[in-house]
Design goal:
17 strands; Structural Genomics Hypothetical 15.5 Kd Protein In mrcA-pckA Intergenic Region, Chain A; nine-stranded mixed β-sheet; 2 domains; alpha+beta; four-stranded antiparallel β-sheet; Pseudouridine synthase
């Protein structure tokens, strides 16, 4: 694909995602399904170059309108789907977003039984950066395994294990505590494969009984209550856009600025300045 000389032009999927309708992946799906027109003509190639200032792009017959950018942090409860609508009528994360008028989409996914931090936005470029494996934005999870795990087993996770879709990158792993039957540990990964942490633990011959995402980059749960959300602060958005140094540290180190409990990494005065809806 050759880039045009006009620097104002962007690919069609990027124009749609930057307008806040969804991610580039969703935009490509809509384009392929014939739901997008450019200057009144149906276009089914996402890599077509358009000028958003001159060309009229419409989705389902509605012209694009740039929406105010939204960046939210949600503490997802167990039992909620990370989808806009469910044909079976099950609860989704959008049932928790009272007061949000703009359409936002989840940056990455958490399965129905996983709880913890989830970023939602209508900024497609931001979402693509956070989810891209090349960005190496770390995500930290607290795991309860179905059995006690040895140091050797945890070392396997630190070095990386082989899954059906290829070997994983090395992970940061910290044992939190052991009970008579279970091991609780913290794991930080820089990928976002489907059910990755659960599948990594299954390689060890165990199951994940509880999974909570406690941190995305340097953004931690803090005192955010389960089922609630708050806007991301400008310093938090800025730090998420920067490559994280934590992925380059030794596997026994926590990401910089984070506590062992995974609840302290917030900008100063965040509790006074942030708004929370519920």
């Amino acid at each position: 694909m050759q880039k045009p000389e006009d620097n104002r032009k962007k690919t069609l999927d990027r124009v749609i995602s930057q307008a806040g309708l969804g991610s580039r992946t969703e935009a490509r799906s809509w384009i392929g399904a014939g739901r997008v027109t450019v200057n009144g003509k149906k276009v089914q190639t996402p890599d077509v170059w358009v000028d958003p200032d001159r060309d009229q792009v419409s989705v389902d017959g509605r012209p694009l309108q740039a929406a105010a950018k939204q960046y939210l942090l949600l503490y997802k409860p167990k039992g909620y789907l990370t989808t806009y609508k469910d044909p079976e009528g099950r609860r989704t994360i959008y049932d928790l977003l009272e007061g949000i008028d703009e359409r936002v989409f989840p940056v990455g996914r958490l399965d129905q039984d996983t709880t913890g931090l989830l970023i939602l936005t209508n900024d497609g470029e931001f979402g693509d950066y956070i989810t891209s494996p090349e960005s190496k934005v770390p995500k930290t999870y607290l795991v309860k395994s179905s059995q006690r795990l040895s140091d050797e087993q945890l070392d396997q996770l630190r070095k990386g294990v082989v899954l059906s879709d290829g070997p994983t990158r090395p992970a940061i792993v910290n044992r939190v505590r052991d009970s008579e039957k279970y091991t609780f540990f913290e794991i930080t990964i820089t990928e976002g494969r489907n059910r990755q942490v659960r599948r990594m633990v299954e390689v060890l011959g165990a199951k994940v009984l509880k999974l909570v995402r406690t941190r995305i980059g340097l953004i931690a749960i803090g005192d955010l209550e389960i089922g609630k959300y708050r806007p991301l602060l400008p310093p938090e958005i800025a730090v998420l856009r920067k490559p994280s140094r934590s992925s380059k540290r030794g596997h026994r180190d926590d990401p910089p600025g984070a506590s062992r409990s995974g609840t302290s990494a917030r900008p100063a005065n965040a509790s006074r300045r942030r708004g929370r809806n519920g």
